[in-house]
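To illustrate the input format used throughout this study, we show a single complete record. The first block contains the structure-token representation of the backbone; no residue identities are included at this stage. The design step must infer an amino acid for every position from geometry alone.
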């Protein structure tokens, strides 16, 4: 009986394990080479970030981080690099309210350093000085996405985006 209870307790323990981290997609474009290499001016760098997650099986999830780096000199694109790094995670016995933050914050924090290194390597191999991407606070990124989603839902429902104490949406008059 004690063994059975101990086994049930082990079956209910939270599980969070990295199964694999892999480069899912990588591309580089240099539409104005080789002429762009003759430019003396330094490039203007734009970076965009996206995070995604999906269930692959009952306890197996894929988390992805996509980065697009665009470098322009004057109005010409020097290079465009897009990379998508993914991780496969086993996640079980985690409370439902913690799953979304885990997939939106925890998993991207694990995957991002690999993508950052791959992007820097790709840019260097393309013949440009490396671009060292800054750390990303995925918690702030996650909160911004939640806020944007709440605002979008508020606009669709005609609400103000405010939630009343009883849980209903406040409406504009």
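Output of the design step:
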């Amino acid at each position: 009986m004690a063994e059975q209870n101990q086994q049930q307790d082990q079956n209910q323990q939270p599980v969070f394990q990295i199964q694999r981290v892999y480069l899912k997609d990588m591309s580089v474009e240099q539409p104005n080479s080789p002429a762009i290499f003759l430019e003396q001016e330094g490039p203007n760098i734009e970076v965009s970030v996206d995070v995604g997650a999906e269930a692959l099986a009952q306890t197996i999830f894929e988390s992805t981080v996509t980065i697009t780096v665009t470098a322009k000199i004057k109005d010409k694109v020097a290079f465009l690099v897009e990379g998508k790094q993914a991780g496969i995670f086993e996640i079980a016995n985690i409370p439902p309210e913690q799953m979304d933050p885990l997939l939106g914050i925890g998993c991207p924090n694990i995957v991002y350093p690999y993508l950052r290194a791959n992007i820097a390597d790709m840019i260097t191999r393309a013949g440009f000085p490396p671009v060292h991407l800054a750390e990303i606070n995925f918690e702030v990124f996650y909160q911004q996405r939640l806020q944007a989603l709440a605002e979008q839902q508020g606009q669709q429902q005609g609400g103000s985006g405010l939630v009343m104490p009883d849980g209903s949406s406040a409406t504009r008059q």
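Structural context for interpreting the output: The chain has one domain: 13-149. The longest helix spans residues 96-125.
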